[in-house]
Protein 1
Amino acid sequence: MAKAAVVFWSGTGNTEAMANAVAEGAKAKGLEVDLFEADSFSADKAAEYDAFAFG
């Protein structure tokens, strides 16, 4: 199964809401998805994922 990382930063919650929607849509298409706030994701983790969404 393909694995995706959704990485976001949100000051007011709007981008977080969109990141959650992106993650749910990707899951509905069969992807395994991990959601990260920007400060908890690093380039070291990139090799673990097949796809990325940044917001």
Note: The first helix runs from residue 14 to 28.
Protein 2
Amino acid sequence: MDSEPFDSEEPGLSKTRFNNGMSLLGKKYQEFIGKKAEINFYKDFRCPMVHQFKHNQKKITLATRIGVDHQQVHLSKNVKGLLYVVIEDFYEDIERAAKKLIKKIEGGEYDVLKLKNPYLTINKIDEMRQITT
């Protein structure tokens, strides 16, 4: 959503980008953005997941839909004050946000050069062997 290169190391840019992405998730996520948020998705979820492959277990508990009997528990707190993040619900919200962003890009709202470059490429192992040997 910005014109900086994907690999930019500008201080604070990853936080800005993350919070911009969070804004696409909708109103129910807005209380988890910003310095005053008791549970901050950037500080308590994104950073630990990226750097340690874990979340802040003192504030967030990950759950699945299995066993919740169709209750709405995603983004609610349990009796210990831990925020439930239901993985399937979170994934669906991210998918909807990604589709919103794609529509904005296709509509010309974001016309930045970096969007014309490949971002994530996946190759078959056999093809990689041919390249590296």
Note: The radius of gyration is 18 Å.
Protein 3
Amino acid sequence: MPTEIPDILVDSFGRRHNNLRVSVTDRCNLRCVYCMPEEVTFLPRAELLTFEEIERVARVATTLGVNKVRLTGGEPLLRRDLPRLVERLANVPGLSDVGLTTNGILLAREARRLREAGLERINISLDTMDREKFQQITRRDDFDRVIEGILAAKEAGFHPIKVNAVAIRGFTEDDVVPLARFALEHGLEMRFIEYMPLDAGRLWEREKVLFAAEMIELLEKGIAPLRPAANQDPRAPALDYDYTDGSGSVGFIASVSRPFCMSCNRLRLTAEGKLRNCLFSLEETDVRGLLREGGTDPEIAQAIRSCVAAKWEGHEINTARFIQPDRMMHSIGG
């Protein structure tokens, strides 16, 4: 019997969307200065999508060509019994890749359960190898727990493990080489992310962005020369480089200096069930209302299609037209 070919989510610029990022909570156990304020009012539990609702959206999305799901937050491991959701998603026909982005604080206790539930890939946020600076950035003293979580993920058999670091000019230059060395020592994939305008205090300025080119220069001086990696995925957000000494690789998400908008394949579902076609989107599509008011799968599919169809050309960070969204990063989903 022939396999049914799903519809394809293509926007008006010809970009095909197969990657759904799902925020399971807006709550976080850190207060990173580039993401959220110290005092936050979080969503009531009743407003969050249930695991069953998330699974239903994922099932409908696979009929439209989505084959990758990444769970985010806030901090997703604050959502009780998250491995149960991972297991449900891992069993959705058509989903070939279920991933997770976490700050790692609770990972040591959950890594093995997540792996056994079917989690394929894991990204862990860590901006510095300096304990005092970690506390400055996150407003919490949990550096050791993050390291413990990374090592637990290794022990549980996750590979590759990606470590994500936000790079801010005048603040994190000294962290680039130590982070990269730590990643090489432990067989991790280090990825540096240019500072983006999603901060709570709206203090972002282009002058505060530590650009990928500058980080490459730091790494070449501190570790070894770099060359662009062969066979890169043109739709992946990271620019990958290999160390010429064969020691490993490193990636850069250069959202500001080298925007990848024209190859973007992502859409996002917030914790309370709003679809967003861009991290910096100013408009959202309500899916929770459909889910809770008797909406059919075709109606949910149409909402997803319409959201993708309305996607703009790009975020315009580098233009005078850029408007920072009202939502902060923790409430959108990383």
Note: The chain has a mean pLDDT of 92.
Protein 4
Amino acid sequence: MVRKSLENGSLFIKNDVLAMIASICAEEMEGVTIVSGFKDGVTGILNRNFHKSGITVIEEEEDISLEVKIAIEYGLEIKKTCEQLQAAILHEIKTMTDISLTSLTIKVEGLTNTQALATT
């Protein structure tokens, strides 16, 4: 949980809010799908990190990092798509929460082929 000081008190932002913002950014980006697995959730629990739906929020003292696991549609430029997703997530989290992430790692776990699905 992130704590921000306000004029007359404090604001607490749960890690799942950061994960939700990242998830919505990914959902809005054409050709990107969040991926997750059972093993990831167990690893997140054991490492005391917050993990939800392919997004891991890592808190270390004052540093907050995100790891986002995605699949990209076949044919899209992977590097460019990841850079766009990273920029969108960083912008939305900063704009909505005034939190600057220490790092945002995008992991491409696979490819999807929606064209093949549409033709079958």
Note: Residues 75 and 113 are 8 Å apart (CA to CA).
